[in-house]
Amino acid sequence: MVVDDDAGPFRLRIFAFVALVLFGALFTRLWYLQGIEAEAFQAEAESLVLRQVFEEAPRGRILDRNGRVIVDNKVVDVVTVDKAVLEEMTEDEQLEMFHRLATAISRSGRLTKLESIVDEVSRVQHGRFDVVPVAVDVDPSLLVYLGERPDAFPGVAVASRTVRSYPFGPLAAHLLGYVGPVTLAELQSANARIDADDPGAKMYQLSDEIGKTGVERVFEDVLRGVPGVRYLEVDNRGEVIRERYEYNSAPIPGADLYLTIDVDLQALTEEQLAEQLAAVRRRDAAPGEPDFVGAAGCAMATDPRNGDLLAMASFPTYDPREFVNGISFAEFELLTSPENYAPILNRCIQGTYAPGSTFKVITGLAAEEAGLLGEDSIIPEANNGSPGRLEDTGTYFYSRCRDDFDAADTCEFGSTYTGRPRTVGLSEAISVSSDVFFYKLAGEGFWQLPQGPEGDEWIQAKAREFGLGAGTGIQLPYERTGAVPDRDYFDLLADQGVFLRDGSQWFPGDTINLSIGQGELLVTPAQLTNAYATIGNGGLLHQINVAHRIVHPEVDGVQPPDTTFGPRVLRDLEIPADQLAQIDEGLRGVLTHPQGTARSVFDGFPNGFWTVAGKTGTAEVNGKADSSLFAAYGPTNQGEPEIAITAVLEESGFGASAAAPLVRSILEPIALDEVPRARTFDEIDRLEFEQISDAAETDEADGGGDE
Fold this sequence. Notes:
Distance between the termini: 121 Å
Shape: elongated
Largest sheet: 7 strands, mixed
CATH topology of the largest domain: Penicillin-binding protein 2a (Domain 2)
Oligomer: single chain
């Protein structure tokens, strides 16, 4: 074999030439990219923008104190329209497609109008890149129908969405509240309080929902989750180039909120309130008296030991499920209309009423503090020689009438008592509800007391100590404060044109009427419940708690500790034990005294081992039937009372005829430990199915058919 010595160098020269060509081409390309096209690439890079598309997180659940879910979330099918696709269509093409879509949705079982789709898509809340929901909770079959016809429904899809669900239906609606689309004002206010740079920021978009009333509103920051974010890369024409998945973040659910209420007691309270009002409507009024309308009322209960709300029922009520798919203006008007008794109104914190005789305990405590019932009592001695007792004949005549009253006032104050004269002290006066006893305290005592820090306004001062005329601190929005009338109050309303007379015209008759809970005095059922809870626990005025604890969601594998809520004591009234003992004795006598105003109502109640202290009240309303009231606490014979309860029934008659029977119907199952278990709608459906199945099996076993 012959070897060519020149072959090796030749190959090296060829390799060097190829390498040189390749490096030259690479250098040329780099020069082209960095030099000639650099400006073009820079312009394109600047034209690409990352746009954020937010995904609302599921809200936290709401549970009762025992962990039973009252408000949950469920995944539903939602018909959506992509606004980016709509921009490529003419207005006529959009309307034609919307008409086909409305027809398809309606045929699937959810009635939908063309106008509603147009209105929803056109709302300013939705941005150019938003996917707009136009029908919520549709039949799953619609997914197949629309999916098979993409050309007829461009940009339309059926997606999954989380919405509120209510296992117990309308139960506790006023307490829970509802959610709805955020308004521009709400969005601006909420976002102004949020640090947008915080990774856990719960920023709002105009397409989000927000709590409107109830705990959904007060605990909005707790229940709302952290929105998820999708990043879309779009060009300068607004067209989506791609999704940047590496930047996306998943939504984080909101925290679970445990309430202080017991769902079983809540269901019992709502049921008994509705039944008692129905019974009122079946009663006939006396000839010439206003009819018993019995259309509205409230019943609520708290724990005197810590201020926890145990139940709150307001009637008429509403169903928060109506807000899940949106509510029309006409439907909302029905919920707020006074002619329809405003079902959305929470009468327990927003209804204001004259407390009637339930207020006499406040007058009695003020009299004890002012020294009107001691050895130097202004009540003249009765025949038995005991100070602080008087003979009640049913009528009181103000002794200084000619000096203090003008022609517009009367000197004589009557009452509903028409029996034989009776001798009463403070406790008996509460038990038998003697108006004359308290008239005497006001006219001969408080009105004629210039000495002392309160002047002649001892009753008003004591009422304010018990929280009347101010909010209870309950964790609910829109609470009203009621009114404790005095000279300043008259001045204020006279300046506003509400009253025709100012504080300089506060007369003895005003104090006398105030002593029995009439006149301009107004309280909410929540305030009255809290006042009786304060008497029951010995003088601690609590703010009313609605929240029991908060369970936060796990984030990045870390479970934050629960947030718990303890008692919130507003103040200690430091009421002497002997004074409280007289009031408590009088309240227990309402059920046990031979002339006790609720004795017949509680006949047969297990008062021997579960003793109740309570007070009837009847509030006069011009031109209407009286409002019926009853406030109570118990048991008083087993240590500190565990429940305080108030019922107020509008246009329902005497306190003993409507409100007291309602309170008994709630307290008796508690005393006997027989509060029925509240069932969810699903449990009711299963029970009915089982009953039908059992009946069918029995019928088959009997041979079937009728004999």
